[in-house]
Please model this.
Amino acid sequence: MSRLALTSIVAMTAAIATSAASFAASIDRIENDQDNSAPVDATVEVEAVTTEIATAIATAQSNSAGGSFTNETEIDSTQVTNGATSATTDIEADSVWGLSTGFATAQGNALTVDGEDGLDIDAEQTAGAGASVSALSALRLNTYGGNTAQSAIASANAVEVMGSGNMPMNVRQSSEADVEARSEIEAEEVETALATAQSAGNSLTVTGYEANIIALIDQENSGNVRSTVDADIAHANWGVTAMSEASGNTASSQNDWGYGHLQGGQNNSGEVRATTTLAVGTFGDGPVVGSAHAVGNNALVSNIGADAYSGVTQNNSAAVTGQVSMQLGTGMAAYGTSSAIGNAQSAYICATCPVGLNAPVNQVNSGAISSVTQMRANGYVGGMTGSATAVGNVSTFSTVTGN
Model:
C-alpha cells in the first residue's frame, strides 16, 4: 500500500470518528437498589426558658436516592423498606419572643430527580407490612410565643421528578405501612399560630417545563394513613390556622408548554383519616381557621400550552374521614372546613391556542365516606362559618383558551 493511500485512510478514519463524536449525545445511566429493614429515627429536642428564636428540623428516610442531571439520563431504581421510620421535633419553653418553628419529615422510600435534558425513569418502591412511618412536630409554650409554625409530613413511598425534555416514566408504588403525621401546639399566648400535617401512602409529583411527560403509574396502598393537627391556645392575638391532609394514593403532573400524560391505576384499601382539633380561648384581631381533607385516591393533571391525557383507574374500598372540631371562646371570626372523597381525578388545560384533553375516567368506591365539621363557642364570635363535603367519586375537567 502506498504512503498516500495509507495517509488517506488514516485521515478518513479520523474524520469519521470526529463526526460520530460530534453527533453522539452524552447519556447518564443510574442504577439504584436499596433495601432497609432497620429502624431509622431522627429526633430534635429544644428546651429553653426564654429565647428569641427556636427552630427544630428533623428528617428521617429509610431509603433515599436523588440527583440533578444536565445530560439526558436513564434511571432504574428499586427501593424496599420494612423498618420503622420516625421524625420528631419537640420544642418546649416558657417563652419564645420571636419565631418558633418545627419541621418533621419522615419517608419510607424517597426518590427525587431533577433533569435538564430529558429523564427516562423506571422506579419501584415497596413499603412492607413490617414498615411504619411517622412524623411528629410539637410545640409547648408556658407563657408567650410570637409567631409559631409547626409542620409534619409523612409518606411511605414518595417520588418527585422535575425537568425538561422527554420524560417517560414507569412508577410502581406499593405500601402496607401505617403512616401518621401529627402536628401539636400548646400555648398560653401567641401572636400567630400555624400547624399543618400531611400524610400519604404513595405519592408521585411530576413538574415539567417544555417537557413531554408520559407517566405510567401503579399505586397500591393497604396501610392506614392519618394526619392529625391539635392546637390548644388560650390567647391568639392575630389568629390561628390549622390544616390536616391525608391520602392513600396521590399522583400529580404539572407541565408548561409540553405534552402531559398520566395513566395507570390507583387502589386504596387502607383507612384514610384527617383530623383537625382546635381549642382557642380569645382571638380578637385575627380569625381561627381549621380544615381537614382526606382522599382515598387522587390524580391531577395540569397543562399549559399543550395537549394532555388523564386516564387513571381508581378503586377505593376503605373508610375515608375528614373531621374538624373547634371549641372557641370569644373573638373575631372562625371558619371550619372538612372534606372526604373516595376517588378524585381532575385535569386542567390552559393555552393561547386551542388544545385538546383526552380523559377516560373509571372510578369505583365501596368505602364509607364521612365529613364532619363541629364548631362551638361559649362567648361572642363575630362570625362562624362551617362546611362539610363528602363525595364517593368526583371527576373535574376543564380546558381554557387564554388571551
The longest strand covers residues 132-175.
